[in-house]
Amino acid sequence: MTSKTLFARIGFGGVVLAAAMMTTPAVAAADPITDFLCGTGSAQFCPPPLAPFLPPPPPPAPAPQSAPPAQAPSTFQYKNCTEARDAGAAPVYRDEYGYGPHLDRDNDGIGCE
Q: SS3 letters for the chain?
């Protein structure tokens, strides 16, 4: 074998080796002994596989808005129907401001009719 052929084979082999090293993924490990033992098939020396990345779940949807809470009935009551009429509130309906059972004689829910 001539020296020219020998250099060509070494050069070609170097190119193949360089290409192989560039295409294989680099394994960054802190311990080359562990890499060696794991590569020989001893699973007890292999680090556990990484868990797959899962994106966090979306935040829960906001609760549907319901009607605003009903206001507590007022404790104010007109003293009589004359006072309710003077205030411009007559007739006064049950669950309205100023209604009182003493204003509703027939108990139909409408006071000062």
A: CCHHHHHHHHHHHHHHHHHHHHHCCCCCCCCHHHHHHHHCCCHHHCCCCCCCCCCCCCCCCCCCCCCCCCCCCCCCECCCHHHHHHCCCCCEECCCCECCHHHCCCCCCEECC
